[in-house]
Amino acid sequence: MLPYGKQSIDQSDIDEVIRVLRSDYLTTGPEIELLEQAFCQATGARHAVACANGTAALHLIAMAMNLQPGDEVVVPSISFVATANGARYCGADVVFADVDPETSLMTPATLEAALKRVTPGKLKAIFAVHMGGHPADMPALKAIADREGVFMVEDACHALGTTYTTADGREHRIGDGAHSDFAALSLHPVKTITCGEGGIVFTPHDHFAHDLKIKRSHGLSRDADEWTNGELAFEEGTGAANPWYYELGEVGYNYRLTDFQAAMARSQLKRLPHFAARRRRLVALYHQKLDGLSNVVKLVAPRDGTDPVLHLMVALIDFKAIGKTRKEVMMALRQRGVGTQVHYIPIHRQPYYARRAVGLDLPGADAYYAKCLSLPLYPDMTDADVDVVVGALREIAG
Ligand SMILES: *Cc1c(COP(=O)(O)O)cnc(C)c1O
Description:
The chain is of the alpha/beta class. It folds into two domains: about 10-220 and about 250-270, Aspartate Aminotransferase, domain 2 (3-Layer(aba) Sandwich), CATH 3.40.640.10; about 275-395, Aspartate Aminotransferase, domain 1. The protein has 15 helices and 15 strands. Helix 6 links the parallel strand 4 and strand 5 (about 150-155). The longest helix has 18 residues, at about 270-290. The site of pyridoxal-5'-phosphate has 14 residues, from helix 3 and helix 4.
């Protein structure tokens, strides 16, 4: 059975985990900073902050932005639910933006339409999602965020390795912070690299990087410059910092990554060039081999100036034209050893959010959802596996 996505673990990854298991620190050790430095190098980010998972990364970002009940954020309706949930954890209300039905990306136009539904004065942040690995139009979205005077956040969970070139000819790597205040990455097994569970926050801002690190570890500060409780913090007379002292200024969480996970993630990051090359090659094969079926099965073409490393191979299937429901196609593919999944059910359709946005109509998200089906794509998939998938689709589509 070919799954829609799968991790690729080799001996070098395993060796790194074992090395750390035999070392002194399983958590709060030296591996975290090494991973953060490796991510800065790989992406061009100024700061990378490792944490427990991609959802924790989104929650930490929401806390760093100081989202409060009554604040509003814009999130595209096509994403994993965690993009919206991160802001909800802080009590913010989510205003869902529609997406382009072909690319499933929020566009400047769908963002502008969503901004008309925001309560005046309440908007705090705009979230872009690089669906499947295709980058949203960050320069244009960031310009709108700047005009509104709000934070720009990228949910980059699908897009490690993706690059895009701006009008000035400069190439940008996802995470480099050129067009956002924060970006979130997930290290879940179906994502581009993994350590089981894990997440990264990227930010170009020094003060937020410091704040994120405090918030991922209960909210405790061990930095004497930040302590306010002089009586407990400092020795009477000498004024020297007490060696046991730590201080809780604001409440945080335990969102730490373990050191053995960090070592595994760093090992996987070394393999990113290989993973990216495999994913790009498999996507090119899909495009080539599905060309003859393009009247009923469409793949999203990369936008001009973008070079995505795709996480998902989303096919847009005209189920009406082939006379089969999505369920029938999914089951027929499964019988032929091909696993598929739907990414995603529009978030504004989930009961929790539908209750909060009664009557909201997002036709682009619905149109995309009606057609999408994610085909197998992962680095250990062979070129011949693509033939298996395409052959099965050809039979089923008639
Ligand atoms: C996977 C994913 C997340 C959540 O990441 P976890 O590591 O599973 O918590 C958030 N947003 C998107 C778009 C994702 O694909």
